[in-house]
Design goal:
This protein has 14 helices and 16 strands. The chain is an alpha/beta fold. The strands form four sheets. The protein has a seven-stranded mixed beta sheet with strand order 4-12-11-10-9-5-8, sandwiched between helices. A four-stranded mixed beta sheet has the order 1-2-3-15. A three-stranded antiparallel beta sheet has the order 13-14-16, with helices on one face. Bound molecules: pyridoxal-5'-phosphate. Pyridoxal-5'-phosphate binds next to helix 4.
């Protein structure tokens, strides 16, 4: 049996986190439940958090941090938001799961469909992975076609066909990017660079009548945040419509984040299907996919495309989601915009003064600070960023009590719990961290 001598730890700043990580590595692969948490992208030992309140996180050693990760996106209202907590507690008192339909699903589905006019019907699932995986299955079932197009550097969860990335010549044959994904599966996934319409045209042309779906994060955030060039998303819409290909917007991150109605509201583009997650569950495991009713009606039990889930539409998660969505008002987005723009403007100016090559890509309250001399418009330009410099920045920020994503290729998020007086504090600490970077 493992014994944790918590009281005997040295009075190091992160001694208990370090000790827990040692134990975790014996118990779980890499010591984590999800890979990027292991700090592989920045080095050092990961921090074990014990609580969060508002815009702050506290670790198991009692250190507290300004949180610019927000659990990778869900916590748009910050940690332990009182209304969300109350909704979860109330729901839990009534029982945690029944394996039946509940009123909470209707309430949340209505809230979502009011905000996303393209979603006529939706299905709740438990993770973004499930949402994207099933949206692809639905597209294949609806079209009778096998292939799909995804973007280089686009992440849609870890289902097999979406883990494929291109090798050279990847327009016709995908290459698996994880052990365990077969060549056959990867071969049906065509990978193109983001912001490159010509590549999409060529992929559709070379595979005419065979492409079931094009799946895209309309604002990619998993190669770091990348901004769609003017007209790009509109043109994806036209190309997919013309070729009978189903357009899937993966708004697991951008949904409710960049606007109540997500990137599709911001850019005025109507996809056939949309994947949602993260904010949708208010910090509990919940996701959904939805869209045109004629497509959604192909799902079991009304149609032949199978999908199911023991905990799908869980009552605690739908309660947390509804309590979150109800609090997202126009002024919330104004406040988020102000906080994020103040922080990123201060950092960009500071970088210029210090002579640090930095590109800040931001949409609303999500952004990435790329240590890069050139603008970042796709996965290739993102990969050219100086990850070693980012790692220095990450650790310097941590020493100043700001928790950034432990990888150059992820997004920072602010929550509405970061109040105006604290925004300047966070910006100052990031500036101080920037000044510690050595080239
Ligand atoms: N889609 C996008 C755009 C994501 O960012 C993620 C996760 O980060 C997923 C899908 C997968 O979601 P989950 O981690 O809930 O399976």
């Amino acid at each position: 049996m493992k014994w944790l001598p918590l009281t005997k730890l040295k009075a190091e700043r992160r001694g208990r986190s370090g000790r827990l990580f040692e134990l975790a590595q014996d118990l779980m692969p890499g010591g984590v439940s999800s890979p990027v948490r292991a700090f592989g992208g920045v080095g050092g030992s990961p921090i074990f958090m014990s609580s969060g309140l508002g815009a702050r996180l506290t670790d198991v050693d009692g250190n507290s941090y300004w949180d610019l990760v927000g659990s990778w996106g869900p916590l748009i209202l910050g940690h332990a938001n009182p209304q969300v907590v109350e909704a979860i507690v109330k729901a839990a008192r009534r029982g945690s799961t029944f394996g039946t339909s509940t009123e909470g699903e209707i309430e949340l589905a209505q809230l979502v469909e009011d905000r996303f006019p393209s979603i006529e019907k939706l299905r709740f699932v438990s993770s973004g992975t499930e949402a994207a995986m099933t949206a692809i299955r639905l597209a294949r079932g609806a079209t009778g076609r096998a292939k799909l197009i995804k973007m280089d550097g686009g992440y849609h969860g870890h289902s097999d066909s979406l883990l494929a990335a291109a090798g050279s010549g990847g327009l016709t044959f995908g290459v698996p990017s994880s052990a365990g994904v077969t060549q056959g599966t990867a071969a049906d996934t065509l990978v193109v660079p983001f912001n490159d319409l010509g590549a999409v045209e060529r992929a559709l042309e070379a595979n005419r009548g065979q492409v079931a779906a094009l799946i895209v994060e309309p604002i990619p955030a998993n190669m770091g945040v990348v901004i769609p060039e003017p007209g790009y998303l509109q043109n994806l819409r036209s190309l997919t419509s013309a070729s009978g290909t189903i357009l899937i917007f993966d708004e697991v991150i951008s949904g409710f984040r960049v606007a109540a109605g997500g990137a599709q509201e911001l850019y005025g583009v109507v996809p056939d299907l949309t994947c949602l997650g993260k904010i949708l569950g208010g910090g509990l495991p919940l996701a959904a996919f939805g869209g045109r009713a004629d497509l959604m009606n192909l799902l079991a039990p009304s149609g032949p495309v199978y999908q199911a889930g023991t905990l799908s539409g869980n009552p605690l998660a739908t309660a947390a989601g509804a309590a979150t969505l109800r609090q997202l008002r126009p002024q919330t987005y104004q406040q988020l915009e102000l906080a994020a723009s103040s922080i990123t403007a201060a950092v960009a100016t500071g970088a210029e003064q210090l002579g640090v090559n930095l590109q800040v890509n931001r949409v609303g309250s999500m952004w990435t600070m790329f240590f890069n001399g050139e603008s970042v418009r796709d996965a290739n330009t993102a990969r050219a960023s100086d990850s070693a410099q980012y790692a220095q920045f990450f650790h310097a920020a941590l020493a100043s009590d700001v928790y950034l994503p432990p990888s150059q290729f992820e997004a920072c998020f602010v929550s509405s719990a970061l109040l105006p007086p604290d925004v300047g504090w966070v910006a100052d600490r990031l500036l101080a961290a920037l000044s510690k970077i050595r080239s």
